[in-house]
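Fold this complex.
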Amino acid sequence: MITPSVLLIGLFGLVPVVWAFILSFQHNDLQTQPTWAGFGNYREMFADPTFRDSVKNTVIYTVLFVPITLALSLLAAAALNRKIRGITVYRVAVFIPVVTSTVATGVIFTWLLDPEFGLVNSVITKIGLPRLGFFADPHQALYAVVVMTVWGWVGFGALIYLAGLQGVPRDLVEAALIDGCSKRGAFWRIQVPLMRPVSGFLLVWLTINALQLFDEVFVTTKGGPLHATTVVVYYLYLQAFSFFHAGYAAAIAVFLFVVIAVITFVQLRLTRDSSMSGERP
Amino acid sequence: MGAVSGRRRRRGTAAMATLILMGGVAAACSSGSGSDGGTTITVSHGYTAVEARAIKAEAAQWNKMHPDTKVNLVFNGGNDSALQKTVAGFQAGNYPDVAYEYGSSAAQLAKQPKLIDLTDKVKSAAMNWNDFYPSEREAATVNGKVVGVPALVDNLALVYNKKLFQQAGVALPTSSWSWQDFRTAAKKLTDPSTHTYGWAYINDGSEDTVWRFIAMLWQAGGDLLTPDNSKPAFDNKAGLAALTQLYNMAVVDKSVYLDTGNDNYGNLFNSGKIAMLWTGPWDLSSINSDVEYGVTYLPGYNGDHETISGPDLYMLFDHSAGRSDTAFKFASWLTSPKVHLQFAIKTGDLPLRQSETKLPAYQTFLKKYPAEKLFVNNLNNVKHVRPNIANYAEVSTAVGQMVQSVLLGQAQPAAALKSGAAQVASALAGS
Amino acid sequence: MRRPSGWHLVLIPLAILMGLPLIWMVITSLSSIADTRRFPPGLPSSLHFANYVHAWTLSPFARWLWNSTLVSVTCVVSNLVLCSLAGYAFARLRFPGSRIAFFGILATLMVPFQVVMIPTLLIVKHLGLVDTLPALVAPNLATPFGIYLLRQFFVTLPVELEEAALIDGAGRLRILRSILLPLMGPPLTTVAVLTFLTVWNDFLWPLVVISTPDRFTVQLGLATFQSAHFVQWPLLMAGTVISQLPVLALFVAGQRFFVSSIANTGIK
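Structure:
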C-alpha cells in the first residue's frame, strides 16, 4: 500500500538528502573536481560570525512567527466559522495571501512599508507616532519580515483550523451551551482542546517552514540591511550559488536538518495524545 | 488470513502500477533536446521585450543564411538566474552552446572544464579584437585567458531632472562638476517637506551599492585590490575620501534617497521626487516622456571624471567540434560591427566596437537615442576595471556591507574602511 | 428577517487587509507602463484592458497555462491516491520499521530545496527526463506533507468504524474505499489545494530543469516579463492575475466541498 509513495520519496527525497550529506564533507564548487574536506566545513561554520548571526535571526524569527500565526489563525477560523451571508467571500479573501506569489507579496510590502512614501508610515505619522524604517532599518527589518510572513500564512492556518472546528461534533458544544456555558467559554474549553491534533500539526508544519525561511527574504531585503534578515537558508543559498562554496552550504543544510529534526521530535512528543501512537493491532 | 494475502496482493498491484507509470513516463518523454550530434546550436539569453524581439530577428537572419547550422534561442529565466541555471545545467549535461552571462560571472565560469578558451580564436583579423572597447576586453579576460565575446557594454553617468533644477534655482550640472559641486547642488535640491531628494543611491548591499562607490574610489586615485588581486587596497586616503563624501551627503546633509532595492528610485525619478541619478543607458527607456532630463559625466575628483563599466559576455561551451565551430562563428557574427549596430538601433544598447561609431547607420542610432551620445563618449572615461577573480562575489558582499553601514549612519567612514578591508582580506585568504 | 451579523464589522476589514495584494495587482494590471513608473503608485488614468490581451497574445500564455495545469493536476491526483494509501498504512497497519519510515519521510521536509536541487536534477537526468514535463511531475508525485496530513487524519478517526468491516473479512483497500472515503473530504481537499498551489507556484525547479520555451510553466513564463533592470509591471501583473485565478477558483470550489462533506459526516 505504501510502496509506491515510499519508493518515490525514497528516490526524490532521501537520495538527494544523502548526497547533500556527503557534499558537506567536500570542498566543491559545482564546476571542478571536488576535494575532500573532512570536518573542515563544519569547523569553519561554527567559527563564522555571519553564520552565527543567521542562526540568531532564524531563531528570533521562528519564535515570533509561529505563536503569532497560530493565534491569529485560530481567531480568524473562529470568525469564519459562521453561517452568515457572504461567508464564502470572506474565506476566499483570507486565503488570498496564501495564493499570492511571493514576488507580488514582496513588491506590495516593500511599497507599503517604504520609510518615505509608504502607506503605513503616512498613516502612523498622521496619528502622531514616529516614522519607522521597516525594511530599511537594520533593527526593524526582521520584524517587518515577521509581519509580512504572518500575513501570508494566516489564511493557511485559518483553513486548517476551520476544518478542525467543523469537525468537532455539534452536540458537544450544544450540550455545553445548555449547561449554561457561554459561547466563548464553549469555544475555549471544548472546541480548542479537541483540536489539539490540528494545533499539533500546524505547530510542526509552521515551525519547519519558519526555520527554512527563504523566498520572502529573497524578494525583499536580500538578507540585509547589514545581514539583519540573513536567515540560515538565505545564507546557505548565498554560499552555494553566489560564492560557489557548495560543500560549505551543504554543511549548513545538515546542521539545519539536525536542528529541525530535534525540534520536530520534541514537538511531536509534547503535543501527542493517545491517538498519536498510530499503532493498532 | 484473507486480510494478509489481500494486503500482499494490494501492495503488489500498487508497485506494478508505479513501475508502469514510471516506465510509461520515461517512454513518453521526448527524445530529449540538446542532443550531442547535429549542428544546431543552443543560445541561451535573458533578453525580454524589445531586446528579445531584436535577438529573435537576428537569429532568424542567421538561420536564413545558414540553413545547416541553425541557431536555437532559449530564454534562461532572466539574467539574474543565468549563472545558477548554467551551473545546474552542467551537472545535468543540459547546457547551451552559447550563454549570455554577466561579466561578474566570468571568473566563476572560467573554471568550467567545458568552457571554450577563445584566446587564440579572437586573434584573427576578422574578429578585430582590439576594436572592442578596452573595458570589454578586460572583462572577457580571466588570468590571461579570453573566456567570452563581449555582448553588452554600459557605464555610469549623471542623469538629472531639468525641471527640478529650474524650480530650485540651481545651475544645471556640467561635465566639469566636482564632488563639492555635486554635494552642494544635492543639498539645495532636497526638500523634506515635499519628500524630494537631490540624489538616489541603491543601498541593498549588492554590486549596485558597490560599483558606484568603486567609481568614486578610482576617481580619487585608489583601487579595490592590489594589482595582483591578493589584498584590499582601499583602506587609504582615496577610500576615505569616497566614503566621507557618501557619509556627508547621506547622513549629514540627508540629501540622498536610499533605495532598499533597485525598483523605487526610477519610479521616484519619474514622479519628480529625485533630482539626480548615477545610472546607465538601461534606465533611459524607463523615464517617462513627461520628464525632461539631461545626461552628463559623473562629478569628478581633482578633475578625474572616470566612470565604471559593466560589460556582459557571450560565453561558449563545448559539445562537439562542429557545434563549437558554429558557436564561435555565430558569436562573432552577432558582435560584428554592422550586425551589432543594427541590434543597437533597435534596442538602444551602446555600440560594442569603436568602428560602429564610424558607420553611416550610427547617425540613425544617435537620432533615435540622443541622450546616449554622452554614454558612448563616456566609454572613453573608463580607465579601470573591476578585478576578474573567482571570489569577486565575496569581495563585493564585504564592500557592500561597508558602504551600506556608512550610508545608514551605522559606522563612521574610517572605522568602516578598516572593518571592510579586514573582511575583504579574509575573503581573499579563505576560499 | 434576521439582523445582519455584527461579525461583518470584523470580517470586512480582515478581508480588505488580506485582499489588498489582489486589488493592487488588478489595479496595476489595468495601468499603462507610465502609470506604474511613478511612486507612490496611484490609480491609473484610464483602464488598459488591452494588457490582458497582450499578456495572452504576445507570449505563448495559453501553452504555459496548459503545461502548468497538466503538471499540477497530475500531481494532485497522484498525491490524493498515494498519500491516502500511505497515510492509512502508517496510521493503521503495524509493520516493522514503520516509525523509522515515517520519520524518514518527515525528514525530507527538513532539507531546503536549494540544497537538494542539484542531486534531484542528476536523478532526473538519469531517468532521461531532463527538459520534459514529466520531470516537473516526478519529484512531486507523493509529497511527505500529504502523507503526514492524511496519517494524522486517520489516526484521529475512531477504529470502531472499521472494526465491524474487518471482522466481516473486508480488505483494507475496500474499507478505505467504502467506509473511509466519504469521511476524507476535508483532508483530501486540503492536500489537493496545497499540492496544486505548491506545484503551480514553483519557480526554481522548472527553471533548472526546463529549457524549451514550449514546455515552460506559467511562473517561468512570467519571468519573461521581467529583466534585470526593467520590469513590465502591467503585463506581469496581468499575467500573474490570470495565473492566480485557477488556484483561487479551486479554493472556492474546495472550501464549499469541505463544508458540505463535513455536514454529511456520519460520526456519532
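Chain A touches chain C through 86 residues (CB under 8 Å).
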